[in-house]
């Protein structure tokens, strides 16, 4: 066998090896679409965990639960000093107790799933806290009920969507707890009689052909 033939054989072997690697790579991504190896993963990535795939919506859910506690716990405490209504003070105590427990759970779960959590409220939440700190009595009661009811309505949509569609068992179980707490708080805030329902966002119109 001459040198030219040997080179041709080696070239064929190299090309065959490269083709095998390409096919293997394509097969991996076909079997596990969207799964990117890593510890916690960036916000737009899917990662594998012992309790199932963890996606961007799952991480966002944990972040929003954490941020809710960061402003609702101090605001519930503040209500004990500034609210004029005993009912508003009572609702504030429920918010403190429930979010304290929820915050412990979300921090533990986020640590387990390697999801970084914020340590400060959002800009909107900070603005609401600053606004409430200037009010007392009846004015405080109305602002407290409106801002918190609005905030709970927004987070309820997020939590419900994650509960309905997450692929992660731990996230699903925690979302069940969170959706119950958020629903409880919306009901409590409405029970104060201070919520201005006309100021809440209008629900989206139904689709023309709703699926069953």
From TrEMBL:
Keyword Transmembrane helix carried by entry: yes
InterPro entries: DUF4142, Ferritin-like
Keywords carried by this UniProt record: Membrane, Transmembrane, Transmembrane helix
Record-annotated membrane-spanning stretches: 12-32
DUF4142 domain ranges (all copies): 57-187
Gene3D superfamilies reported in the protein's UniProt record: 1.20.1260.10
PANTHER family per UniProt: BLR2558 PROTEIN
Protein name: Putative outer membrane protein
Species the sequence originates in: Sphaerisporangium krabiense
């Amino acid at each position: 066998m001459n040198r030219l033939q040997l080179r041709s054989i080696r070239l064929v072997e190299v090309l065959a090896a490269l083709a095998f690697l390409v096919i293997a790579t394509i097969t991996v991504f076909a079997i596990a679409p969207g799964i990117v190896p890593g510890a916690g993963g960036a916000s737009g990535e899917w990662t594998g965990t012992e309790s199932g795939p963890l996606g961007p919506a799952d991480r966002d859910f944990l972040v929003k639960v954490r941020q809710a506690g960061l402003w609702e716990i101090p605001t519930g405490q503040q209500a004990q000093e500034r609210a004029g209504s005993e009912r508003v003070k009572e609702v504030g105590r429920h918010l403190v107790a429930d979010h304290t427990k929820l915050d412990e759970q979300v921090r533990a779960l986020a640590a387990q799933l390697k999801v970084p959590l914020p340590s400060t409220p959002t800009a909107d939440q900070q603005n609401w806290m600053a606004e409430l700190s200037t009010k007392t009595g009846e004015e405080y009661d109305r602002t407290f009920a409106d801002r918190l009811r609005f905030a709970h309505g927004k987070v309820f949509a997020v939590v419900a969507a994650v509960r309905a569609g997450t692929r992660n068992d731990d996230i699903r179980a925690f979302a069940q707890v969170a959706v119950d707490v958020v629903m409880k708080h919306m009901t409590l805030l409405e029970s104060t009689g201070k919520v201005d329902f006309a100021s809440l966002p209008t629900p989206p119109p139904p689709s023309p052909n709703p699926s069953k």
